[in-house]
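hey team, just a heads up i'm posting the complex here instead of the shared drive bc the drive is being weird again. everything in one block, sequence lines first with there labels, then the predicted structure for the whole assembly after. its two chains so it's a bit long, scroll down
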Amino acid sequence: MPNIVLSIENLSVSVGSRIAIKDLNLEVPNNTILYLLGPNGAGKSTLLRTIIGYPGYNVLTGVIHFENEDVTDKPMEYRVSKGLALAHQIPPKLVGIRVIDLLSTLCKRGGCTINDVAKEMEIEHLLYREFGKGFSGGELKRVEIATLLAQRPRLALVDEPDTGVDVDSIEIVARGLKKLVEFSPHKSIVIVTHTAFIARYIEPDTTCILLNGSIIRCGEAELLYKVMRHGFKGLV
Amino acid sequence: MASKAWFDEVRERAAKALNKPSPYGLDVDISPFLSLAEPKSRGLLDTSKAEEVGVNLKANAMYIQVDQVYFNYLSRIPGVEVLRIEDFIDQRRDEAYEYIWRLVDPATDKYTALAALRGRGGYFIRVKKGAKVEEPIMACLYMSYGGLQAPHNIVIVEDNAEATVYTGCTIAPEVLGLHVGISEFYVGKNARLRFIMVHSWNKVAHVRPRTVVNVDDGGEYISYYVNMSRVKTLQTYPTVHLASNARAFLASILLGLGDADLDVGSGVYIHGDNGSAELISRALARDGSKIIMRAHIVGEGASRGHIDCRGLMLSNKASIQTIPGLTARNPNVMLTHEASIGRLAEDEINYLVSKGFSKDDAISAIVRGFASVEIKEIPDRVKSYIESIEKVISEKAL
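-- predicted structure starts here --
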């Protein structure tokens, strides 16, 4: 088992004509709950999408290693098959596809049971609804985390699990994230947030600050609480 | 006799409408189909074609028609009567007179006129008062030879009864034919009719079904229509009339392939108070197909209605047009519509790939999702037919 699950070196990424990530370096070791903090537009979602290989996110320089394998030029399908997974900040609505349809496909691959996943995330009432249609913010996040629980990834990348979510849902989402850490053979996870509300329920081991497309600082949990008290301005 | 006078009048009115075009759809020259010569068809049913459109030929109540020459029907279900329309007229002429050509005007256009003058066959189905029939009543209308097939279908679901009628219409490959199915449905007080119609034609077939449904107080009409194959031209516009507390739900799934010209709509008139109507259509346009989706709800009583039309463009040469319409004739009416047309959404495909789907599987799941419409309270057996048809549609769409 490699000590470093994910390592990113000198990464620069363009999206359209804009350079969104600049010379970024990041390591996710084993046994690490890593929080990636940054204000809106800092490049957090871009970084996660680049790591998983989303089309349209063009790597200009740098390399991404996942479990010691260079996946920089690998397509998203490959990276997901290797155990990377992304919880989207805002999943799209899927017309005519019910939550149960998606979970059933994922569970067939991941070996879970739909009921267990649904119970864990308290989404039993949403199973027969069209995916994303008319869901509240909290329901959307719970369903999204449920898809990751069904995938059972080796490393989950979670984008803004606490944005637009009511307090009750945050607790459930945090429970789901803890399960994802449990499922990970590395016992690691990457959580992106700009509010850090979720940190009340799942404590960070490492906190990294992303500003203007670059990691400007990584530190221990204390850094997160500092940001929560004083914001990002004092860190520049 | 009043019935004789009525049938004479039907023929007279039809004869005068033989040149009357339909306001919608491409005009088809019907002169080749007016011949009085006996059809040369041998009336052989291709069972594999029947099964392709989901018809269970072992059903306990069914009607089979091949071209205009072979007819077979039976009912072993208590409370369900199935007859060929001519047998119904012969056996109970005075009763038939109350139902035939009462909802559909034979002079509506040249296709109804042609059906009134040259049509043969069609089913008479009656579900007796209070009968709750779970097993679908099956009908198969098959064209093996070409020419005209113009069956006249009557369905009567009496008060407090409930039934599902499943009709599959299909044709042999390369056979040039015109299908004009006339359907008049009577749904009684607090009765419920679920009507599923699956069409699978060929690239030279013209199709002009004409359907009118009357739903009495508290009744319910649920319709699910699918065109799942190539067709040359298809135009239909079923119309439903709702009395007080009655409800209609009509869903159409339209697959456009090749150079097909589809003009499919539906109209609901809510005459009574507390009625409701929901019209849903989904069009998937591939190749050089042209699809027009029409929908219109007229609220005359205090009522609610919603139209949802969505089109999926799967080719640069295809076209889709939606024409939703709402008319209120009562201040206590709440009518809404939504319509959208677009291509396959990249963000949906990428989302599913990020969940472990291959790109092909993601596209297939999205297309299938697009073509699936949830219909509540349909028997499981019918649900499974529909699911398998949705699967075929998504495969053909790609």
